Every structure is written in C-alpha cells, then in structure tokens.
C-alpha cells in the first residue's frame, strides 16, 4: 500500500505549483456508464463490466499525470513511468508542437511543447491540462531570450 501511495505522489515535494488532470469528467463518464449498466438489463454482460473497469482504471491513471513546478525547475509526471525533471537553467528552447499521450493501444496526439535541454535531450510535454496556458507561460519563460 505504501509503495502505491509513494508512486502516486512521486517527485512531489516543496513545489510551488502542481497542475493535475481533472478527475471529474472521467468520473462523470464512469457514473453514467454504471447507471446504464444498472438500468438497461441487456447491457449487463461481462464485456460491459470489463469496459467499465478499463474506463475507471484509465481515469485513475490520468489523475496521476501532473506538472510540478518549483523555483529551480519543473517536472512532468506521466501516468506510468518516472517523472521527467529538468532545471530551468538547462532549457535551451521551448517550441510549440504536438505531444503523444498514451491511450490504450496507440498514442493520442495533443497540443504540447517541445523543450530542448542543454544536454541534447528533447522533452515532448502535453498541454491537455486545465490551466494549460499558465503551464505554457511558465515553461516558455524558462527559455533564454
């Protein structure tokens, strides 16, 4: 249990701002699907339950995704995998573009930013978050003029 809580809040600490995906739209969709399952007897099949379980699991995974900002840098925490942390001092350029977000069998392309770092790495960061304009502003201010 402790490991899952640690994994859920990985890389969080003394950040000044944390931007998470909104949970409510996915929660409402799961509630509507549950209501349909309960009210329409013909939908009460095993595959409906599996689809509902996958939807709730995906909603929880999406809720883990976050942008974490502190005074020295930022981090993007994907639904699965370790956070991608970088210091503002290492940012060479920030350009708009598309970023992949894993969705079941293939990625979904969403609006994002490509952050190029001093060590040659390029991070594709999705901006499908609430208050994405503020996230983009904070990241573009880190780029040298």
Low-confidence stretches: none
Rounded mean pLDDT is 79
- DSSP helix fraction: 25-40%
In terms of DSSP E residues, the strand content is: 25-35%
- Provide the CATH top-level class of the largest domain: Mainly Beta
The total domain count is 2
Structural class: alpha+beta
Number of helices: 4
Radius of gyration: 18 Å
Oligomer: single chain
Number of strands: 7
Identify the CATH architecture of the largest domain: Roll
Rounded to the nearest angstrom, the distance between the terminal CA atoms is 46 Å
Reading the helices and strands in chain order gives HEHHEEEEEEH
**What's the main sheet like?**
4 strands, antiparallel
Biggest sheet: strand arrangement: 1-2-3-4
Spatial shape: elongated
CATH topology of the largest domain: PH-domain like
Overview of the structural elements:
By secondary structure, this protein is α+β, with helices and mostly antiparallel strands. The chain folds into two domains: 2-21 and 65-142, PH-domain like; 24-61, no CATH class. It is 37% helix and 32% strand. It contains four helices and seven strands, in the order H-E-H-H-E-E-E-E-E-E-H. It has helices at 2-8, 24-39, 46-64, 132-142; strands at 17-20, 66-69, 73-77, 84-87, 91-103, 106-117, 122-126. It has a four-stranded antiparallel beta sheet with strand order 1-2-3-4, with no helix packed on it. A hairpin with a 3-residue loop joins strand 2 and strand 3 (73-77). The longest helix has 19 residues, at 46-64. It starts with a helix and ends with a helix.
